[in-house]
Structure formats: structure tokens, C-alpha cells
């Protein structure tokens, strides 16, 4: 792969990620503002977002925060919510087998939901078009890496200005979170038949959310979707 091709793939990935980054920034600010309002300092917000880099579990941790944080509960909830990354990594695994582990493992640290969805959709398109390799390594970096400074940076901005703004959710920034995932789902749409797994996952997650305390709905939705997909494949 030439340097010119590598550079063009990185730029193509960054270009595809750019619209989503405009939506990620506002809810990173919401997270930072909420974190500052429960007593976290700028340094603590930076460490949390920089080391965890997974928005859903960070929002959950902030909601559980107290004068004496229930650390074990926070750790378990974080692991539970981030368990979706196991499925995300498994979906990319067939395309990464030719790469050495010393490259793959650090790269997976930057695999947030948005970057994974964009990269996976591109991989699926390239595979359908029989382009080789289907997985573009520089494209993945171009997509995923920019989300890191955007997430950490805007979370710090939110933490800095949050106390002055008060309830930052009143400005409507939180709407960016569901909007991003609707757009990502649209990019992965392959017809109503294949979307049945999404529907099963959604319904189970809603049911568990309404009946079971905590973040078990995330795990239940993931497992239900996977099990339904497996059983349908076996039946066919």
C-alpha cells in the first residue's frame, strides 16, 4: 500500500466521520457538565473520558456518583454497558485476522460505537463490491481516531462551563445522542428482514429496562439479538 493511498484512505475515513463528530461534541459537553455538577474536577473528567472512552457507561457512572461513590456498582455497570464492545469486536474479527495483535489491540481501544459503525458499514460495502482487502486499516484509523480528542476535549469544555450554564440538557444537546444512533442504523440498513434482529433486541431491552433495575437492559438486548440471529440461521 503506497503512502498516497494510505493518506487518501485516512482522509476518506475522517471525512465520513466528520458529520457524526458534530453530533458527538454536544453530548460530550452534556457529560462534562453533569460530571462537574456532581463534584468531579477537570482533571478527573479528563482521566475518566480519556481512559474509558465509552459514553454510555460514563453517563451511567455519573448518575450513580455520590459523596461516597458506590465504586463496585459503578465498575460492574461500566463492564455491563461496555459488554457491547465484545460483539462489535467479534463482528470485525474476521477482517482483522491477517493483522498482528500488537496493531489490533491498541486500535480497538479507539473503537467507539460511532467509529465502529462507520468502519463496519464501509467494510460491508467493500466486501459486497469484492474489493480487497474488504477492511481498510487506514480508513479505520481515519474514522475512529478523531473521535477521541473530540470526546475528551468537549467533555472538558462541558465540565468547565457546566456550572455557569446550569442544566445544560435544557439546551437540547442531549438529543444529539439518539440522533447519532438513528443515523448510524440507517447507514447499516439492509432491508426489513435482516432488521428483525434489531427489533428483537430493542423489544427485549425495553422490557428489561422497564422491569429490572440497573443497566441489564443493554446486556439483555445484545444477547437477545444475537440469539435470535443464530436461531434464524440454524432454522434456514
Automatic annotation (TrEMBL):
Residues annotated as transmembrane: 20-40, 60-81, 139-162, 168-185, 192-210
Superkingdom of the organism of origin: Bacteria
Membrane topology classification: Multi-pass membrane protein
InterPro entries per UniProt: Brnchd-chn_aa_trnsp_permease (IPR011606)
Keyword Transmembrane belongs to the record: yes
Entry GO terms, CC: plasma membrane
Keyword Transmembrane in record: yes
Gene Ontology biological-process annotations: L-valine transmembrane transport
Predominant localisation class: membrane
Keyword list, A-Z: Cell membrane, Membrane, Transmembrane, Transmembrane helix, Transport
Subcellular location, record wording: Cell membrane
Similarity-based family: Belongs to the AzlC family.
Name this polypeptide is given: AzlC family ABC transporter permease
Organism for this UniProt entry: Pseudomonas laurentiana
